[in-house]
Protein backbone atom coordinates (compact mmCIF):
# COMPACT_ATOMS: atom_id res chain seq x y z
CA UNK A 1 0.00 0.00 0.00
CA UNK A 2 1.38 3.36 -1.01
CA UNK A 3 1.77 5.97 1.71
CA UNK A 4 0.56 8.69 -0.66
CA UNK A 5 -2.45 6.87 -2.16
CA UNK A 6 -5.00 5.15 0.10
CA UNK A 7 -6.02 1.62 -0.79
CA UNK A 8 -9.36 0.44 -2.14
CA UNK A 9 -10.08 -0.95 1.36
CA UNK A 10 -9.64 2.54 2.76
CA UNK A 11 -12.25 3.98 0.40
CA UNK A 12 -14.69 1.12 1.00
CA UNK A 13 -14.24 1.52 4.76
CA UNK A 14 -14.69 5.28 4.55
CA UNK A 15 -17.82 4.93 2.40
CA UNK A 16 -19.30 2.29 4.72
CA UNK A 17 -18.50 4.37 7.81
CA UNK A 18 -19.96 7.50 6.26
CA UNK A 19 -23.12 5.69 5.18
CA UNK A 20 -23.58 4.14 8.63
CA UNK A 21 -22.93 7.49 10.33
CA UNK A 22 -25.33 9.34 8.02
CA UNK A 23 -28.05 6.73 8.52
CA UNK A 24 -27.60 6.97 12.27
CA UNK A 25 -27.93 10.76 12.13
CA UNK A 26 -31.07 10.53 10.00
CA UNK A 27 -32.72 7.80 12.07
CA UNK A 28 -31.94 9.57 15.36
CA UNK A 29 -33.24 12.91 14.09
CA UNK A 30 -29.95 14.73 14.60
CA UNK A 31 -30.20 16.15 11.07
CA UNK A 32 -33.19 18.21 12.20
CA UNK A 33 -32.02 21.46 13.83
CA UNK A 34 -35.33 21.88 15.70
CA UNK A 35 -34.85 18.51 17.43
CA UNK A 36 -31.28 19.36 18.40
CA UNK A 37 -32.33 22.80 19.71
CA UNK A 38 -35.12 21.15 21.74
CA UNK A 39 -32.47 18.91 23.32
CA UNK A 40 -30.10 21.79 24.03
CA UNK A 41 -32.86 23.94 25.57
CA UNK A 42 -32.55 22.67 29.13
CA UNK A 43 -34.40 25.77 30.29
CA UNK A 44 -37.56 24.16 28.90
CA UNK A 45 -37.38 21.21 31.31
CA UNK A 46 -39.90 22.79 33.65
CA UNK A 47 -42.43 23.49 30.89
CA UNK A 48 -42.08 20.05 29.30
CA UNK A 49 -40.55 21.46 26.14
CA UNK A 50 -37.19 19.76 26.58
CA UNK A 51 -36.53 16.73 24.32
CA UNK A 52 -34.22 14.28 26.12
CA UNK A 53 -34.20 11.72 23.28
CA UNK A 54 -30.81 12.78 21.93
CA UNK A 55 -29.23 11.83 25.26
CA UNK A 56 -29.95 8.22 24.29
CA UNK A 57 -28.32 8.83 20.89
CA UNK A 58 -25.24 10.23 22.63
CA UNK A 59 -25.13 7.29 25.06
CA UNK A 60 -25.40 4.79 22.19
CA UNK A 61 -22.62 6.60 20.32
CA UNK A 62 -20.36 6.36 23.37
CA UNK A 63 -21.07 2.62 23.70
CA UNK A 64 -20.36 1.97 20.00
CA UNK A 65 -17.15 4.02 20.21
CA UNK A 66 -16.01 2.15 23.31
CA UNK A 67 -16.62 -1.21 21.61
CA UNK A 68 -14.80 -0.07 18.47
CA UNK A 69 -11.80 1.13 20.46
CA UNK A 70 -11.61 -2.12 22.42
CA UNK A 71 -11.59 -4.08 19.16
CA UNK A 72 -9.06 -1.72 17.58
CA UNK A 73 -6.66 -2.02 20.51
CA UNK A 74 -6.49 -5.77 19.95
CA UNK A 75 -4.98 -5.26 16.50
CA UNK A 76 -1.47 -4.16 15.57
CA UNK A 77 -2.64 -2.01 12.67
CA UNK A 78 -5.97 -0.91 11.20
CA UNK A 79 -7.62 -2.96 8.46
CA UNK A 80 -7.67 -0.18 5.86
CA UNK A 81 -4.81 2.17 6.77
CA UNK A 82 -1.08 1.81 7.38
CA UNK A 83 -1.24 3.07 10.99
CA UNK A 84 -3.69 4.11 13.66
CA UNK A 85 -4.26 7.85 13.90
CA UNK A 86 -3.89 9.34 17.37
CA UNK A 87 -4.03 12.93 18.55
CA UNK A 88 -0.63 14.60 18.55
CA UNK A 89 -1.31 16.05 22.01
CA UNK A 90 -3.47 15.12 24.98
CA UNK A 91 -3.00 18.55 26.53
CA UNK A 92 -6.03 20.75 27.22
CA UNK A 93 -4.90 24.12 25.90
CA UNK A 94 -6.45 27.48 25.03
CA UNK A 95 -7.15 26.65 21.35
CA UNK A 96 -8.95 23.44 22.39
CA UNK A 97 -11.10 25.25 24.97
CA UNK A 98 -11.87 28.19 22.65
CA UNK A 99 -12.65 25.84 19.78
CA UNK A 100 -15.02 23.86 22.00
CA UNK A 101 -16.77 27.04 23.10
CA UNK A 102 -17.17 28.29 19.52
CA UNK A 103 -18.39 24.83 18.44
CA UNK A 104 -20.96 24.76 21.25
CA UNK A 105 -22.21 28.26 20.49
CA UNK A 106 -22.53 27.42 16.80
CA UNK A 107 -24.33 24.17 17.62
CA UNK A 108 -26.72 25.97 19.94
CA UNK A 109 -27.48 28.76 17.47
CA UNK A 110 -27.91 26.61 14.37
CA UNK A 111 -28.91 23.25 15.82
CA UNK A 112 -26.28 21.69 13.56
CA UNK A 113 -22.77 20.38 13.87
CA UNK A 114 -20.60 19.36 10.89
CA UNK A 115 -21.80 15.75 10.55
CA UNK A 116 -25.53 16.50 10.38
CA UNK A 117 -24.88 19.57 8.23
CA UNK A 118 -23.05 17.46 5.66
CA UNK A 119 -25.81 14.82 5.83
CA UNK A 120 -28.30 17.62 5.11
CA UNK A 121 -26.58 18.47 1.81
CA UNK A 122 -29.04 16.06 0.20
CA UNK A 123 -31.85 18.50 1.00
CA UNK A 124 -29.91 21.51 -0.37
CA UNK A 125 -31.77 23.90 1.93
CA UNK A 126 -30.42 27.46 1.90
CA UNK A 127 -29.84 27.42 5.67
CA UNK A 128 -27.72 24.28 5.41
CA UNK A 129 -25.69 25.68 2.54
CA UNK A 130 -25.08 28.92 4.44
CA UNK A 131 -23.97 26.90 7.48
CA UNK A 132 -21.58 24.80 5.38
CA UNK A 133 -20.06 27.86 3.70
CA UNK A 134 -19.63 29.54 7.11
CA UNK A 135 -18.06 26.36 8.51
CA UNK A 136 -15.64 26.16 5.59
CA UNK A 137 -14.71 29.84 5.91
CA UNK A 138 -14.15 29.42 9.66
CA UNK A 139 -11.97 26.35 9.11
CA UNK A 140 -9.95 28.13 6.45
CA UNK A 141 -9.52 31.20 8.68
CA UNK A 142 -8.18 29.07 11.54
CA UNK A 143 -5.78 27.29 9.18
CA UNK A 144 -4.50 30.62 7.81
CA UNK A 145 -4.06 32.08 11.29
CA UNK A 146 -2.17 28.98 12.49
CA UNK A 147 0.02 28.93 9.39
CA UNK A 148 1.00 32.56 9.99
CA UNK A 149 1.67 32.00 13.70
CA UNK A 150 3.53 28.69 13.35
CA UNK A 151 4.88 28.32 9.82
CA UNK A 152 6.90 25.16 10.59
CA UNK A 153 4.36 23.41 12.84
CA UNK A 154 3.39 20.03 11.38
CA UNK A 155 -0.13 20.29 12.90
CA UNK A 156 -0.92 23.22 10.60
CA UNK A 157 0.13 21.44 7.42
CA UNK A 158 -2.48 19.82 5.18
CA UNK A 159 -3.02 16.12 5.80
CA UNK A 160 -2.64 13.67 2.88
UniProtKB/TrEMBL annotation:
Transmembrane segments: 12-34, 54-72, 92-109, 121-145
Any matching Pfam family: DUF6691
Alphabetical keyword list: Membrane, Transmembrane, Transmembrane helix
Protein name (record): DUF6691 family protein
Naturally occurring in which organism (per UniProt): Kaistia terrae
